[in-house]
């Protein structure tokens, strides 16, 4: 049996994890494969965008000196599709037909939109009816100048950043590698997929839960296994996994039962905590095995789900040096929740916005630790502070957005 | 040149897309590979969960008749790890040591938690100090009874749903196949990755943008290509792609320029619209090529990004029969935006919550159609209604959450 446990606050447990200074190291990957990675250093523009004076409209490019006395006729001396360059010179009252996005001839100072013109009776001429207050030219570097910072260390790669780097012709991007995560469920009661149901046993649903959560939240799943409640085999497997993994997440065996070996195993390492002032999931435990985080979550589905989102997901983001590791907010509770509890109670909930744009949260399904019927409906967690009588409909509550 | 265009409202364009009744058809896939698919029919529980009376605590299971007169000694006649079954009978003042999650013996009517007991001086005995008001047993089916609906047609597969199906031992799940999407950028000015920069030309950033957006939002990318502004080759490619794709998204060539062939190509099919009352992206056009949606987005990065999120993403979700195809909300604008416009103006913005939980939105970067520096920072779009003077700081605005 393990020693009496001292329960710490959720935020204290969270902060202990963030003390880790583990460096994942930098890799260079092709921009097209960088979705959801985090940029490992500032990236600067290798060229200006636009790299030429770019026409904002379809229309006619004319000289600044000719921009007066409309309506009048212009001689059309060239036609400029995008991607082509006008090689001649513009003389008095000459115009070049130009498309949106094309390079404005060097002599031209203004683009008149097509809608302000009409065909002339003369061939090779156009009548410009009126002018604009603006020149309708994006100057060189109006988006970015060469050397401008375009991405910052800690930026997450998404469709927008990938597109941005591609606009500069950048092929590879320096990113932090993704944390390697091993998932392990313990419990002699666990049936694998494909086995027939047996009395007193259950299908293992926590391991697939954690596998998918790791994938969804940008861990690299390097191992997923299931072990019976035998201390020796658990320890052996953990030691071996700690050589490679940045994070080992286990589920089950953290409670006070005679077969809850995970609690003992965690104590054999550099213990961070082995009890948190929260329900569900109070026996959630963590330790360092070298620089590998060993996180032992409860075997109850609700507690396992909450433990992942409150601790593992932010820790993954911390290791990847994301600018924001969790999203907290204040919201309006839509129903009474009046159970008293010494510990903070974490409710699975759904969020919506009312007509004033206020974030509203409604608990979904059961608050029981063992309940697995509401995980998939959960979009946020509501915190009911411990030591109070609960919260009423209309009260402000702290929430974690998932 | 094409006919004069009639501009319709954003919402009208959106609704025209949703009129499609195209049936993607159902496939059966392994649960573990079902992340982000949408369930194609209701799914019912093949067994009850729990399938046995499950202990909520580590402690001792006793008969209902013996639940009185504490403290008193009980003879411990068995020890029940999870997954094992007690095969004997419980007699008067006999108890079985039981773990959280284990099957409660049929004779037992209550579980006393370990903390309410102390060891006895007698071997094989335990002293139970006090009792609980509750029996601490999850009855059979307290999560789900056999035949209960566990997932609904239109539910999206996530870590929670995968875990839920695995808890029932379910191996495959019926889902709608993902829409097949082809992406095509047009423009003679476009450089491919790896080519040296050339005067008047630009690196193609819209095609990688659309590729990643399609992947992120659950389309199956079946083709991605780049074509010069030549009507014949564009038409030929589109006809061939329409045989296989559910959606063809093009970027570029929808404006009024002489080389904007996409506008003409779209008119050659069953036209849905070729102008929308919005900026950027007013020339956004759509047509049916058979039952394939042909959606021609502007070649400007901002317009292309907005067009995807306002039309393609909801259409993908509509085809997959998701319960919700877009997320609209009301929010509080954090800065003045006072440009007047005949059309609705869509601003790229970031959202946050204030201390009252109110959704607050702040435009990011330039509102110019051609600007590509803020796509990656955008978490929502703000609608500034056309025909008004704009919106002021503190005003309520309509937003699309991305």
TrEMBL record, chains A, B:
| Broadest EC class assigned to this enzyme | transferase
Keywords attached to this Swiss-Prot or TrEMBL record, sorted alphabetically, are: Magnesium, Metal-binding, Molybdenum, Molybdenum cofactor biosynthesis, Transferase
Q: Which InterPro entries match?
A: MoaB/Mog-like_dom_sf (IPR036425), MoaB/Mog_dom (IPR001453), MoeA-like (IPR038987), MoeA_C_domain_IV (IPR005111), MoeA_C_domain_IV_sf (IPR036688), MoeA_linker/N (IPR005110), MoeA_linker/N_sf (IPR036135)
Domain of life per record:
Bacteria
Q: Which residues form a coiled coil?
A: none
Cofactor(s) of this protein: Mg(2+)
User: Which reactions does this protein catalyse?
Assistant: adenylyl-molybdopterin + molybdate = Mo-molybdopterin + AMP + H(+)
Which Enzyme Commission number(s) are listed? 2.10.1.1
Query: Could you tell me which Pfam families the record lists for this protein?
Result: MoCF_biosynth (PF00994), MoeA_C (PF03454), MoeA_N (PF03453)
One Gene Ontology term of the molecular function aspect:
metal ion binding
Q: Where is the MoaB/Mog domain?
A: 182-318
Q: Name one GO biological process term.
A: Mo-molybdopterin cofactor biosynthetic process
List the pathway annotation: Cofactor biosynthesis; molybdopterin biosynthesis
Q: What GO cellular component is one of the record's annotations?
A: cytosol
Q: What does this protein do?
A: Catalyzes the insertion of molybdate into adenylated molybdopterin with the concomitant release of AMP.
Q: Which family does it belong to?
A: Belongs to the MoeA family.
- Name-wise, this protein is Molybdopterin molybdenumtransferase
């Amino acid at each position: 049996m393990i020693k009496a446990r001292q329960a710490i606050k959720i935020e204290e447990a969270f902060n202990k994890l963030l003390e880790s200074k583990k460096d994942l190291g930098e890799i260079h990957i092709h921009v097209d494969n960088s979705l959801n990675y985090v940029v490992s250093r500032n990236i600067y523009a290798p060229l200006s965008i636009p790299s030429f004076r770019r026409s904002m409209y379809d229309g006619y490019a004319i000289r600044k000196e000719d921009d007066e006395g409309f309506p009048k006729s212009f001689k059309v001396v060239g036609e400029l599709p995008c991607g082509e360059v006008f090689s001649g010179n513009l003389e008095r009252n000459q115009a070049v037909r130009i498309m949106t996005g094309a390079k404005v001839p060097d002599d031209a100072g203004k683009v008149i939109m097509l809608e302000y013109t009409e065909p002339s009776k003369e061939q090779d001429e156009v009548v410009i009816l009126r002018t604009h207050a603006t020149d309708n030219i994006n100057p060189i570097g109006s988006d970015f100048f060469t050397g401008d910072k375009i991405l910052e260390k800690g930026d997450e790669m998404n469709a927008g950043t990938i597109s941005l780097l591609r606009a500069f012709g950048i092929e590879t991007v320096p990113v932090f590698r993704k944390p390697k995560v091993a998932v392990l469920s313990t419990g002699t009661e666990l049936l694998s997929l494909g086995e027939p149901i047996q009395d007193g046993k259950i299908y293992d649903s926590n391991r697939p839960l954690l596998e998918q959560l790791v994938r969804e939240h940008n861990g690299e799943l390097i191992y997923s296994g299931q072990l019976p409640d035998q201390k020796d085999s658990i320890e052996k497997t953990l030691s071996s996994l700690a050589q490679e993994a940045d994070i080992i997440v286990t589920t089950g065996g953290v409670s006070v039962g005679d077969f809850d070996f995970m609690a003992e195993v965690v104590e054999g390492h550099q213990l961070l905590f082995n009890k948190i002032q929260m329900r569900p999931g109070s026996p959630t435990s963590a330790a360092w095995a070298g620089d590998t985080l060993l996180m032992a979550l409860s075997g109850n589905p609700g507690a396992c789900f909450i433990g992942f989102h409150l601790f593992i997901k932010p820790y993954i983001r911390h290791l990847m040096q994301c600018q924001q590791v969790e999203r907290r907010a204040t919201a309006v509770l839509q129903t009474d929740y009046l159970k008293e509890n010494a510990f903070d109670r974490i409710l699975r909930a759904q969020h919506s916005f009312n007509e004033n744009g206020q974030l509203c949260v409604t608990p979904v399904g059961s608050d029981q630790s063992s309940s697995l019927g509401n995980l998939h409906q959960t979009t946020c967690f509501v915190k009911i502070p411990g030591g109070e009588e609960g919260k009423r409909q209309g009260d402000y509550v702290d929430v974690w957005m998932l």
